[in-house]
Amino acid sequence: MKQSNIRNFSIVAHIDHGKSTLSDRLIEFTGGLQSREMKAQVLDSMDIERERGITIKAQTVRLNYTAKNGETYQLNLMDTPGHVDFSYEVSRSLAACEGALVLVDATQGVQAQTLANAYLALDNDLEMLPVLNKIDLPSSDVQGTREQIADVIGLDANDALAVSGKTGDGVPELLEEIVNKLPAPHGDGNALTRALLVDSWYDSYLGVVILVRVVDGKLTRGQKIKFMATGAEYVVDKIGYFTPKMVNVDVLNTGEIGFIITGMKTIHDCKVGDTIIDSKYDDAKMLPGFKPSVPVVFSSFFPVEADDYPTFRESAEKLALNDASFMFTVEKSSALGFGLRCGFLGLLHMEIISERLAREFNLNLINTVPSVLYKIHLRDGSVIDLENPADMPEPTRIESIEEPWVRATIMMPDKYMGGIMSLCSERRGVQENISYVGNRAVLVYQLPLAEIVFDFYDRVKSISSGYASFDYVVYGYQASDLVKVNILVNEENVEPLSFMCHRSFAEKRGRQIVEKLKDLIPRHQFKIPLQAAIGGKIIARETIAAYRKDVTAKCYGGDITRKRKLLEKQKEGKKRMRSFGNVEIPQSAFINALKVSN
Q1: Which of 104, 125, 265, 331 has the highest Cβ tally under 10 A?
Q2: How far apart are the C-alpha atoms of 77 and 91, rounded to whole Å?
Q3: Per residue, what are the HEC states of 218-265?
């Protein structure tokens, strides 16, 4: 295939705007799969993607298309996720492309994530092609959406194609637009090999499968290659591309996207964004790659059965190979044993990883309440990062605590604006900007990340009857009045239950946890105080009543002092028992107390 006839492009859009459905039609029209092999969302290969109706992993497929001018073109399509938690997948895919289809639902118009992904494409210097989808629906507004694209994104959308991913209307015209308007890949076909490592995943039969975009030269079967970031050398055993079925070939030329298999068994040699070169190439210049993902939400995962820890560790390593934005370190808890402290890009990301570990590796896990990364400024001038509240230094050593803040963009019909604004104020938000596009308001707020990782997205959706869209970007740290709340059971600190929050919310959240624990910890022979405390100050308390034996049962009538003497004796015994007795907190109580709740 001539380099000038290759087109590498990806589809970017908001959630549910029809990226995967349009990909299905492109595959069908170009004959990538026969009609009997087609199914809805063919590129969403994971069960969890199909059940939830969302794309989690970016997928690539090669299509051959014969244009009206008689030339045959090779189209390398990447279908990307739409959810804010998976924007790292989008940025990786865009780095391997020259063009992007900015897909907008003609019934809903431009949404927050459309805007965010369009800016990602702009940052990667891609040629953007606006496309309107879902024109088969009676509520679609083609002209109004074209005006919105021009107003909000700043793209000229007068000639934007209107298509239907469901019926296939406009798809042949779209294919012509792709070959005529999107640029061919740059790169020197006669130079030594340089390829970008776009993605990798673990296959139980083939080992590590590596997705690459050849930038210069070519990759051939049997070639000895080197990974520049790690210095590891391997021989290419298999090479090929996806149609979306795996097709083996002998060579990948400049500008092409495909996979290589090298017999690699360890994840440590394979870093996403690395440059792959010929092992003879000594003075190669590394490709820019992509910025490493920065986790913003942290949670500890522990296997319910302690014996499952080695399997859990191995499973997490395989998953980290498949998802470069998932990071973890080993952690030990006195209550729950060995586990992993994991970093995620958001709460949906955490939920998906947790579900994949349970489904793909049959693990039964519990996870602690999610927290964000705080920066602690100590009195000696040093700064430490705090992922886990249990590692908090003594309050006397702390000068100030900073928490991450985000810039959130919320787009909604203007009648819901009051409710959304009061929600943002409730979550310590600071209004930055407000603008209107037709009858839709665009709110820009600065918010603490800790206040939006729990249920903020759900609240935005419920207040706006599902019409609002939400996107955020972490922009920096600010000092706040933050405190660590300790949970004490029988006056002993239970470290796994401690958490960080703003001082104004400490009492409410502390009270919620002790009320929950009161129902979860079984009664003992002595009464058990449950307390939430900031340093030495108790801010909430509940008491679990003791079992009580009726010691006066054998006293029939007689002097009241006999009964009193027996009750006093019992009271003394209970007091002594409480000072020596240990409270056994069952693991189920930990599991339920740590479950993510509002």
Answers
A1: 104
A2: 15
A3: CEECCCEEEECCCCCEEECCEEEEECCCEEECCEECCCCEEEEECCCC
- Written as six digits, the tokens of 576 are 């002594």
* 8 Å CB contact between 120 and 88: no
Q: Which region among 147-151, 186-190, 286-290 has the lowest average model confidence (pLDDT)?
A: 286-290
Q: Which two tokens stand for residue 221?
A: 């079967």
**Per the domain annotation, does 107 fall within a domain?**
yes
DSSP at 151: I
Q: CA 43 to CA 61: how far, in whole Å? A: 8
Answer yes or no: is 187 within a domain: no
In this structure, the answer to whether residues 339 and 244 fall within a common structural domain is no
CA dihedral sign of residues 564, 568, 569, 573: positive
Q: Is 364 exposed, middle or buried (0-12, 13-18, 19+ CB in 10 A)?
A: exposed
Regarding whether 199 and 320 lie in a shared domain, the answer is no
User: CATH number, domain at 529?
Assistant: 3.30.70.2570
Q: Note down the domain range covering 398.
A: 377-479
- Cis amide linkage into residue 413, ω under 30° from 0: no
Domain boundary pick from 146, 181, 216: 181
580 with 459, same domain? Answer: no
Query: Which of 479, 513, 534 lies at the terminal end of a domain, its last residue?
Result: 479
Residues 374-413: tens digit of each pLDDT:
888 988 888 888 877 777 888 888 888 898 888 888 888 8
What is the distance between the terminal CA atoms of the chain, rounded to a whole angstrom?
Answer: 56
Helix axes 587-594 and 503-520, enclosed angle (nearest 10): 140
Q: Tell me what pLDDT residue 322 has.
A: 66
pLDDT of residue 216: 85
Mean per-residue pLDDT over the chain, rounded: 78
Q: Per-residue pLDDT averaged across 328-343, rounded?
A: 80
* Mean local confidence (pLDDT), 574-589: 60
Question: How many structural domains are present in the chain?
Answer: 5
| 343 vs 120: CA distance, rounded Å | 23
